[in-house]
Amino acid sequence: MKMSERTKKASSITKKLSVNGEKALEEYSGEAPGRLKRRRRRTMVKTKSRTLEGRERQTKEIPSQIGEIVVTISDDDDDGMGEKAEVSVRNTNGAAVKTDAGVGKHREREEEIIAPCTESLQDLIKKYMLTSKEEAELAMSHILSPDYTRELALVCSHTPYCLYLYSGVELMGGLKATVLLVGYYDQRSGAAVLKLLDARPSLSTTNRGALDSNRLIQILIHFGLSLYNLSVFYCDSPDRGANSEMEARLRAFRPGLVSLSSLPGLAGRACSDGLEAAFGTVGELTQHIHLHFSNCSLPAGAALREVAACSRHYQPSVPVAAQCLFISHMVRRMTNDWRGLLDYFESLGPSPEARRIRILMRRRNVRLGALFLCQALQPLCAFQEAQLSGSAGLAVQLQLMAALSQAYAARILKSSSVGPYLERHDRGMLRDAGLLLPDLELKVSPRVSEYLLELLRSEGAPDDASRETFLGDVVAFTQAVLENIGASFPDELGFAAMQNMGLLPSVALPTRYPCHALCSRLDAFPLCAAFCLCCGTTDIETPHPLFRGGLCQRCKDNFTETLFHYDEDGYQSYCTICCYGMEVIMCGNDSCCRSFCLNCLDILVDPGTFDSLKETDPWICYLCQPLAAHGALKPRKDWSVRVQEFFANNSDMEFEPHRVYPSIPANRRRPLRVLSLFDGIGTGYLVLKDLGFKVDKYFASEICEDSLAVTRINHETRITHVDDVRFITKEQLTKWGPFDLLIGGSPCNDLSIVNPYRKGIYEGSGRLFFEYYRILHLLKPREDDPRPFFWMFENVVWMNRHDKLNICLLFIVCNKLMADAVKVSPAHRARYFWGNIPGMNRPMTPSQKDKLNLQQCLETGREARFTKVKTITTQPNSLKQGKVPICPVIENGKDDNLWITEIETIFGFPKHYTDVRNMNRKERQKVLGKSWSVPVIRHLFAPLKDYFACEEMNSSSASSSPPDGSH
């Protein structure tokens, strides 16, 4: 990991000083740093004594960050309880300011100062840094000078820094030392800085972990390093227990500490846990074979000699189950000539050792386990070899760790569950049978499959129980490995951060690239705004909001109409670039629903791009990838803002524009949390699920018992019903929220001019508009809150002008949008909508699933008299058409009204959606007449797919659009 990346990441995590850290330091030294800083001359501190191993009584003089004060701490090793350490503060001239003895034993001893080990530092510098004696002495004098320490302490007092602890570093004369390094990002020079802090032979990380953690903290305090700014800690010791002890003690001062000490020894720990959960007999067999060959002469035969040669990877001091490289090499050599190896041990006669090996090798489950481990251990071995080679820095190791987790998760989890697991590393997901792959889809090596097929053809073929046992062991091994890797993941670093750990920020990427020739077809589309990206004309009306280039008037109109069209699989119906396309390829990134057509890819990027991308699974689209030019196709840096401004509602009256929320990258989108007021029969929830959104919580306020019954039956417990809207409080909204979307349409009885007894917006049911207005203002985030928040309010078109202006000018303060369902359904239903959802005012065009004429909605054997019908209300007489009421349907030569199932289809609901609670025809029409048109709400909600997570769609990478794909 580059130092700048680590320190910047740590800085963002630990920007403010933690109160817990101050309390921890106060417990350790007895005085909070703020008080110590204010009282420069007179400071008295008391701390509870800490019992350390040994009987020595040590005194440490710790220079504070203020040059005039030295703090002296005395720790007593006696086991007496209630004893307190003595801490005194004196001036640098030696005069003591004040000393307070603790309760209990009072003894005063002079203790030696923790000073750098000159010999170890000198040996380290000579061996690894400089060659000549003069240069080494010059470097030593510089490192040991007060200026060096003072400058380092000053930098670390205001800059997040990293601490590296390397144990067992070889020095001259065969000695070993523990080396401490400090790294930070120098903002003035813009470079990463790594400085040597200390080298001493006495600081061990393999035993006495509690004492070592104490001494480590004492050393840091001695050098004046601020523990509050310690942001990243790395220790290369594979002793996880000692590392954990150090992390725990350091986190007492710095709760936001990022520890990378879990990297060393990861492969061995994961291998050990995996073999403990399953295939332990394979590890036992490898150990027996190793012991046999280590105590006898080399056997004849190349295959047997290769098995014997694996002994060089064996480490006697490490349990065999934790020796990933050794087991991997052994099982690979053994399985290459299993029969020959078994014959060798058969020839050894009745030796107890040979007999034990023969028994294990004859077991089918042992051979299956060995074949499985040949492949299963490869990722762990690659990780360990990269660590041992020394060529993989921390950034590479973190990337490999993320890849390791992804590789093993994909072997047992369904593809839809891999992403969520990698985000959280939830162990419960590994034990959820519903998220695991079926046995037949488990990832095993071809050699395992061949051996299973060989057994099936033989007389002694294993039964189903034996195969299930083996596949169960495969799952158990992978689960154990994943749990170990997940436990080693730095909590503060997510999977995405670790994947991209080594990448430079976009501002640091090269701005010049070597020239390369473009094919003649690409020359017609240079990276400029002079051409329409869709058709190539130079008659440009507006810039393309997503990519460098323009749009002509015709293509702009088409782009506006179809960009947010989605098919039943959840993906865009047409190409993201041109909004045409007969054949498209879909983005494989979770929650991204974009499609790209053959023509745009082959012309703008490179000939043959479409065919080559079909072989890539999953393919990540150009807007989800880091921004870069692909041939003549170059995404705009601000495309996420431009695409929302492209659909801004600037018609009608002049208002201050709504806040524009940039589109959220697909991998950062989260599920929706919705509050629906005057919810009716759950049209909002139905549309959100139809569009494929992940809905975290859907709170609905509704008082009509018939409507509540419809939503309960159709959506069960997925909708949470809450109080009457008039009684919803601010405290309840805080408890339920934060919300991402507020929707609702207050009753229109007292607003519609059709009602001669209407009371207007200030009386009767019209006043319920102000309940929506009240809750809208309670939910709106502050201006400095980047979280997207959207809202939508609906009401009838036929209201008097006075009420209409009051809503627009005095309260909601935005332009209304009139949307008529007749454009996407067989029935007229004009409604006003107010809101800040992007693209609400774009032209409403039907999708492939919309039914546009009445005949498409009728049951078999019934004939429509009209293509469209007038607005269907709660009244039965609204179904008759014309000035002279005529029934809209003919059945068997007789006039007939619309059936309720047909009305449900006209509104866009599934058939029998309202068939609950023994409701009669009149009651069902009443709840339908108050509801929203499903295709209209789908049109309005579609742009939200740029902000919130969607369910994974079952679709192939490439698909063909219908013949009207050009729209």
TrEMBL record:
Q: Which molecular function GO terms apply here?
A: DNA (cytosine-5-)-methyltransferase activity, acting on CpG substrates; DNA binding; zinc ion binding
Sorted keywords for this record are: Metal-binding, Methyltransferase, Nucleus, Repressor, S-adenosyl-L-methionine, Transferase, Zinc, Zinc-finger
Feature: compositional bias, Basic and acidic residues: 50-60
Compartments where found: Nucleus
The ranges of region (Disordered) come to: 1-61
Q: Which GO terms describe its biological process?
A: methylation; negative regulation of transcription by RNA polymerase II
- Mark out the compositionally biased spans (Basic residues): 35-49
Q: What is its main location?
A: nucleus
- Supply the EC number(s): 2.1.1.37
- The UniProt entry annotates the active site at C748
Write down any Gene Ontology CC term.
nucleus
Does the keyword Nucleus feature in the UniProt annotation?
yes
Q: Tell me the enzyme class.
A: transferase
- What positions does the domain PHD-type occupy? 520-652
Q: Does the keyword Transmembrane apply?
A: no
Similarity field: Belongs to the class I-like SAM-binding methyltransferase superfamily. C5-methyltransferase family.
Q: What is this protein called?
A: DNA (cytosine-5-)-methyltransferase
Origin species:
Gadus morhua (Atlantic cod)
